C-alpha cells in the first residue's frame, strides 16, 4: 500500500479545494497535510484516527481539522473485499490559512475565527443540530463558484467559530511529532493492527515488522502516539466493539470475541476504562 503521510492538495484554478469523494473505500493511508480540512461522511462505516484519538465513524461524522494533524478514516473490512458492492461517499473542503492573503485572518474582525483555528490544532468534531447545518452548507458549497463560493465558505466557518456544539478530538497538549521519513514504518504498524486486531497480536512480531527491537519499538510508539502499543490495540478493538454494539446484531459475549478479546471480564474492564460505561450501558445509551 502506498504510504502518504504528508499529502499535497492544490487547486490550480481556485483559492481553496472542495471535492465530493465517491469510492469503494476511503483513502486507507494515514497522512497529514498543511491545509485546514472540513470533512463529512455521507456513506460508509469504519474507524476514525485523528491525532491520538480513535473512534468508530458512520454517516454524519463531521470534523474540522487544523494543519498537519495526522488522520485516517479506515473503512470496515467488507469495503475492501473483492467484488464488494459497498461504497463510501464524503464531502471535503481544504484551504490554507493564507488562501485569502497573508494577513486576512489577522485582522481584528477575524479574531473569533483565528481563535477557532487555534483550537482546530487538536481537531474539532461537530455535534448536535450544527452538524446537520454544516453538512447542508457543504452540499451547497459544492454548487457555488467564484465570489459566492468564498462568501459561502466564510459564512460556514463563522457558524463553526460561534457555536458551542464543537468538541475537541485529540487530547489536550497533543502535538504531531511524526516525521515524513517515518511514513513507511507507521503505515505498516497501522495497517497490520487494523488488519489483525481480531486475532492475537504479538509485540515481538510488531517490533520485527517495524525493524526494531521490542523495547525500542515500545519507546518509539509511546513517544509518537502518547500511548503504549497495547493501549493502541485495545482502543482499536474497543472502537470496533462500539460499532457492533450500535448495530445491535450480536450479543455482548459475541462482540467480545469478535473484537479480539479473549475473556469477557477483560473486555468489560477495558471497555469501561476507555468509555466510562459497561458494554451494556453503552448500548442502552446509544439506543
UniProtKB/TrEMBL annotation:
<dbReference type="InterPro" id="IPR018062">
    <property type="entry name" value="HTH_AraC-typ_CS"/>
</dbReference>
<keyword id="KW-0804">Transcription</keyword>
<dbReference type="InterPro" id="IPR018060">
    <property type="entry name" value="HTH_AraC"/>
</dbReference>
<protein>
    <submittedName>
        <fullName>AraC family transcriptional regulator</fullName>
    </submittedName>
</protein>
<dbReference type="Pfam" id="PF12833">
    <property type="entry name" value="HTH_18"/>
</dbReference>
<dbReference type="InterPro" id="IPR020449">
    <property type="entry name" value="Tscrpt_reg_AraC-type_HTH"/>
</dbReference>
<dbReference type="InterPro" id="IPR014710">
    <property type="entry name" value="RmlC-like_jellyroll"/>
</dbReference>
<dbReference type="InterPro" id="IPR009057">
    <property type="entry name" value="Homeodomain-like_sf"/>
</dbReference>
<dbReference type="Pfam" id="PF07883">
    <property type="entry name" value="Cupin_2"/>
</dbReference>
<feature type="domain" description="HTH araC/xylS-type">
    <location>
        <begin position="187"/>
        <end position="285"/>
    </location>
</feature>
<dbReference type="InterPro" id="IPR011051">
    <property type="entry name" value="RmlC_Cupin_sf"/>
</dbReference>
<keyword id="KW-0238">DNA-binding</keyword>
<dbReference type="GO" id="GO:0043565">
    <property type="term" value="F:sequence-specific DNA binding"/>
</dbReference>
<keyword id="KW-0805">Transcription regulation</keyword>
<dbReference type="InterPro" id="IPR013096">
    <property type="entry name" value="Cupin_2"/>
</dbReference>
<dbReference type="GO" id="GO:0003700">
    <property type="term" value="F:DNA-binding transcription factor activity"/>
</dbReference>
Amino acid at each position: 500500500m502506498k504510504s502518504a503521510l504528508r499529502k499535497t492538495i492544490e487547486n490550480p484554478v481556485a483559492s481553496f479545494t472542495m471535492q465530493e469523494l465517491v469510492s469503494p473505500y476511503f483513502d486507507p493511508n494515514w497522512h497529514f497535510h498543511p491545509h485546514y480540512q472540513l470533512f463529512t461522511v455521507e456513506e460508509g462505516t469504519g474507524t476514525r484516527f485523528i491525532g491520538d484519538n480513535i473512534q468508530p465513524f458512520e454517516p454524519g461524522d463531521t470534523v474540522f481539522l487544523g494543519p498537519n494533524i495526522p488522520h485516517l478514516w479506515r473503512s470496515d473490512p467488507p469495503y475492501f473485499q473483492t467484488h464488494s458492492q459497498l461504497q463510501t461517499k464524503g464531502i471535503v473542503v481544504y484551504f490554507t490559512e493564507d488562501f485569502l492573503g497573508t494577513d486576512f485572518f489577522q485582522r481584528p474582525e477575524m479574531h473569533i475565527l483565528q481563535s477557532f483555528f487555534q483550537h482546530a490544532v487538536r481537531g474539532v468534531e461537530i455535534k448536535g443540530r450544527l452538524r446537520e447545518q454544516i453538512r447542508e452548507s457543504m452540499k451547497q458549497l459544492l454548487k457555488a463558484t467564484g465570489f459566492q463560493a468564498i462568501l459561502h465558505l466564510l459564512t460556514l466557518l463563522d457558524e463553526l467559530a460561534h457555536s458551542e456544539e464543537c468538541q475537541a478530538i485529540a487530547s489536550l497538549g497533543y502535538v504531531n511529532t511524526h516525521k515524513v521519513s517515518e511514513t513507511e514504518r507507521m503505515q505498516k504498524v497501522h495497517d497490520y493492527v487494523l488488519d489483525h486486531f481480531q486475532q492475537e497480536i504479538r509485540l515481538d512480531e510488531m517490533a520485527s515488522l517495524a525493524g526494531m527491537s521490542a523495547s525500542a519499538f515500545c519507546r518509539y510508539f509511546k513517544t509518537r502516539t502518547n500511548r503504549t502499543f497495547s493501549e493502541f490495540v485495545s482502543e482499536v478493538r474497543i472502537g470496533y466493539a462500539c460499532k457492533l454494539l450500535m448495530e445491535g446484531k450480536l450479543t455482548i459475549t459475541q462482540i467480545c470475541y469478535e473484537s479480539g478479546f479473549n475473556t469477557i471480564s477483560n473486555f468489560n474492564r477495558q471497555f469501561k476504562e476507555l468509555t466510562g460505561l459497561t458494554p451494556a450501558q453503552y448500548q442502552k445509551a446509544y439506543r
